[in-house]
Amino acid sequence: MSEDTTPDDAPVRFETKIAVLLRDDLAAWQRLNVTAFLASGVTAAHPELVGQPYADADGTGYLALLGQPVLVLEGTADLLRTAHRRALERDLPLAVFTAGMFATGHDAANRAVVAAVPGAQLDLVGLALHGPRGRVDKVVKGARMHP
């Protein structure tokens, strides 16, 4: 058996965690959009987290996905600011999504919106991080599972 496979009934406990934290007042379409963007940031920073490509029984191939679960949480704007600060204090790289990014249409404009505001004043609607389980847990402490 290779390193990335286990028997179907064996529990897998990852040493790291991927967490997406969303502001609790977002519309459904915004939650989905922000989650997709933030997960792509974690994936870009950590390509080793991507598993192998999929294939169905007919041999049709599909794209590879992240190889571990993504925990999606929600919290207040205050909690997002706190989580942002905690992550920076713990040297955990973050992906961020701000309210201003909803009004842009491309990556350069998104980066300009973020660059225009000091970090402590970002109007965060979501953030994502990957790191050791305990450190990530401390960053998102107080958040609840997304419904």
SSE blueprint:
Elements: E1 16-23, H1 28-45, E2 54-55, E3 61-62, E4 70-75, H2 77-89, E5 94-98, H3 107-115, E6 124-132, H4 133-139, E7 144-145
Parallel strand pairs: 1-4
Antiparallel strand pairs: 1-6, 2-3, 4-7, 5-6
Helix pairs in contact: 2-4
Feature tags:
alpha+beta, 147 residues, five-stranded mixed β-sheet, 23% strand, two-stranded antiparallel ribbon
Tell me about this structure:
This protein has 147 residues and is α+β, with helices and mostly antiparallel strands. The chain has helices at residues 28-45, 77-89, 107-115, 133-139; strands at residues 16-23, 54-55, 61-62, 70-75, 94-98, 124-132, 144-145. The protein has a five-stranded mixed beta sheet with strand order 5-6-1-4-7, with helices on both faces. A two-stranded antiparallel ribbon has the order 2-3. Strand 2 (54-55) and strand 3 (61-62) form a beta hairpin. The longest helix has 18 residues, at 28-45.
Shape: globular
Radius of gyration: 17 Å
How much of the residues is beta strand, in percent?
Answer: 15-25%
Low-confidence stretches: none
Helix content: 25-40%
Helix segment tally: 4
Mean pLDDT over the residues: 93
Strand arrangement, major sheet: 5-6-1-4-7
How many beta-strand runs? 7
Structural class: alpha+beta
- Quick one: biggest sheet? 5 strands, mixed
